[in-house]
Amino acid sequence: xxxxxxxxxxxxSPNPFWxxxxxxxxxxxxxxxxxxxxxxxxVWKTLGEDxxxxxxxxxxxxxxxGADRRxxxxxxxxxxxxxxxxxxxxEIKAVKRAWPDRAMIVSLMVPCEEAAWKRILPxxxxxxxxxxxxxxxxxxxxxxxxxxxxxxxxxxYIEMVARWCKANTRMPVIVKLTPNITDIRYPARAAKxxxxxxxxxxxxISSITSVNLDTMSPEPSIDGKGSHGGYCGPAVKPIALNxxxxxxxxPETAGLPISGIGGVTTWRDAAEFLALGCGxxxxxxxxxxxxxxxxxxxxxxxxxxMDEKGHRSIDEVVGRxxxxxxxxxxxxxxxxxxxxxxxxxxxxCGRCYAACEDTSHQAISxxxxxxxxxxxxxxxxxxxxxxxxxxxxxxxxEVLEPGTIDTRTGxxxxxxxxxxxxxxxxxxxxxxx
Length: 433
Ligand SMILES: Cc1cc2nc3c(=O)[nH]c(=O)nc-3n(C[C@H](O)[C@H](O)[C@H](O)COP(=O)(O)O)c2cc1C
Hints:
This protein has helices spanning 28-37, 85-98, 114-125, 149-152, 155-168, 185-193, 237-249, 267-275, 285-290, 294-309, 351-359, 384-388, 427-432; strands at residues 6-8, 11-13, 17-19, 41-47, 61-65, 71-76, 103-108, 131-135, 173-176, 198-201, 205-207, 210-212, 217-219, 229-232, 258-261, 278-283, 337-341, 364-366, 372-374, 395-399, 405-406, 411-412. By secondary structure, the protein is of the alpha/beta class.
């Protein structure tokens, strides 16, 4: 059986699944239930200084659904913990003592003054927590007070606060990054420059999920007014994966440990984050949607997949996909594929035809009795038919073997160049520039 245990910055956990800082980790009752369900660790809901914040009393969430009303994206306007600091600290201490084998990270957000960090760090250290996560990510409510993403959007502040924390605690420091920035590499580099031991990402994405067309108020609506919130859940996973990959392959941050967050719902999502360089993953929306027991499926799925692939430990998976993330100009233009429709699986809905005929390359024909066929001479292999087809694996992309003639271009498919890395071999890339 594959070994799921992790050692992230010296913090050990029985599996890589941590609950992200959010309502599931806001109190002892929740965290104990989570540990009983099998989560490997938690990042406790962000603590701030007293007097603690006051949340809205109206709805604080909004959502985007798929056609089956499966929750795809969640928006929230919640602040950091609204429970007294002393209560949280007491509970963290008790839980860590009772569950020594689980990772206990404490998320923190205090004003951008060294004195404030100096005040809170020893209090957290006293709980026996394994590490801290600096919340430089919340895009709403706290950022207007000069905290959260207001810090995370300024690399100099990230570096400065990370340095203060490293100077004032012996606990490992994880910097949680905001995705509400143009190039994620800059804040990650700043975290490293400040001495941070790791980064975690992503926090939520600034968003308005909907507008009530009767009241003309953004939702969630508080007495007729709404404000932007933070977006998360399955919808944000592609954004998170890209940001993680950017940091993992940036020579300036290569090797910096990453805890991956954003839309992790299944073991497969987690495996993808691990493959792109994450040592652990954090989960919020999936737990809030399906309850703590989702972790069972995540653990068994990951373990089974690792067994099938012969990966004995999490370390053997971490970063495996990073060398295959490249820039566009290095993509192999000799690689030619064509769409293929499995006539037995086809339900004759015609989506592939409509999409290709109206918006793409007119590469699918439709007969009178609704048989859909690919016209190789027109197919540029864009993949849109695969993407819109409602039947999984009904349309697939076939790779043309070297030596075959691509009837669209009239050219023979060349074997791969040994060094497909430079522009001279790549006229397509030159033309595109
Ligand atoms: C209701 C809610 C409250 C959150 N509160 C915090 C918080 O206090 N501190 C923090 O760092 N992140 C907070 N987050 C962000 C999550 O920790 C996480 O980064 C984000 O939800 C993306 O993960 P997911 O797609 O698995 O939900 C919150 C998210 C939600 C939905």
